[in-house]
Amino acid sequence: xxxxxxxxxxxxxxxxxxxxxxxxxxxxxxxxxxxxxxxxxxxxxxxxxxxxxxxxxxxxxxxxxxxxxxxxxxxxxxxxxxxxxxxxxxxxxxxxxxxxxxxxxxxxxxxxxxxxxxxxxxxxxxxxxxxxxxxxxxxxxxxxxxxxxxxxxxxxxxxxxxxxxxxxxxxxxxxxxxxxxxxxxxxxxxxxxxxxxxxxxxxxxxxxxxxxxxxxxxxxxxxxxxxxxxxxx
Length: 233
Fold this sequence. Notes:
The protein is 17% helix and 34% strand. It is α+β, with helices and mostly antiparallel strands. The chain has a single domain, classed as Pseudouridine synthase (2-Layer Sandwich), CATH 3.30.2350.
């Protein structure tokens, strides 16, 4: 597994997650990112026994981009606390089918996850298992009936970006689960974890890490690729 390391110190490991790889072990039995990183640390540092690596947040299997892992339990606890308090700034790039009417907006929904089907539904507030979900987006450009958005998460619900945008009538390009009516099998979902910004768990400095999406279709629809992705939002 070829994994790009964006940053590493004694407390943090920041990497670029490859697409179509699970973050942690699941029923598929496929190699997962967490296990691969532990093995890599063990090999590089010649560590005996089990390697500690804390999972702070997740990305859906088909989604790529920047992720942070904790190399100590202290770092894991402090990062998890920041995540709970909404102090980790997470921005994504997303390509949609269609064009939203508003250039900028905040979307609020209530979501319910059917764990047996691994499917998330937008439901009424009074649903017994509903969880509030919120995000804001900024429209960056349009091309051939698709739109490029920057998305900032306010909450971290399962499949949140995919479900909220699909519920508004704009499924993500390539999303087979929530946009099967407009996407074809084999298309790669166009959702990328672009930026993470948070307080370093020990130095207390604000650190920021960026991962650029691949130069592949449909990302390449935007000619000013680098400029758009480096200056948005």
